[in-house]
Design a protein that fits this description.
The chain is built from three helices and seven strands; from the N terminus they run βββααββαββ. The two termini are 29 Å apart. Helix 1 runs antiparallel to helix 2 and helix 2 runs antiparallel to helix 3.
Length: 169
């Protein structure tokens, strides 16, 4: 996995992301030293879901969000990652890029994949094992949508935003 935090790149394997509870800081946050942006590219493989959740949890803990905001962001990100892996991955070398950006009032998470096909919100019946991902994202987020790919890159980004009213700053 390659992670870029405010312009500094660091390569990591799946085991170095860390362990711990969702959105729990392992140390006291440094209000002036923590980056507000994280970008990470991981294999488009379901076995990476736990590493993605840990990465998001640890980064959000450093951003000093409330527990509810962290939980909502981690769950919505997990749903978007699962959708990208299930519906957009075409081979073992595919990747998913996760970007987390925080402003004073908003948290925006984008999950980008190489498929140009837009996600489609479905209505799942009660017995279905899938089909609720985008409904979950819509219920948790203040807004969500599609972003075009970066120039010269195929695919799309699916993003959501959370209002940070009441977050520690």
């Amino acid at each position: 996995m390659t992670t870029v935090t405010d312009g500094q790149s660091e390569s990591r394997d799946g085991t170095s992301v860390g362990v711990g509870g969702a959105c729990r800081a392992d140390r006291a946050p440094d209000p002036g030293g923590e980056p507000a942006r994280l970008r990470s590219t991981v294999p488009a493989d379901p076995s990476w879901a736990a590493a993605v959740r840990r990465l998001v949890s640890r980064h959000l803990a450093r951003l000093r969000l409330s527990a509810d905001q962290c939980d909502s962001a981690v769950l919505a990100t997990d749903e978007l990652f699962a959708n990208a892996v299930r519906h957009a991955s075409t081979g073992p070398r595919d990747t998913v890029t996760l970007t987390i950006e925080r402003t004073a009032r908003t948290l925006r998470v984008t999950v980008a994949d190489r498929s140009p096909l837009p996600p489609r919100r479905r209505t799942a019946d009660a017995a279905a094992e899938s089909g609720r991902g985008l409904a979950i994202v819509a219920a948790l987020a203040d807004d969500w949508g599609l972003a075009p790919p970066e120039p010269g890159t195929p695919g799309k980004g699916v993003w959501f935003t959370l209002s940070l009213r009441g977050a520690a700053s």
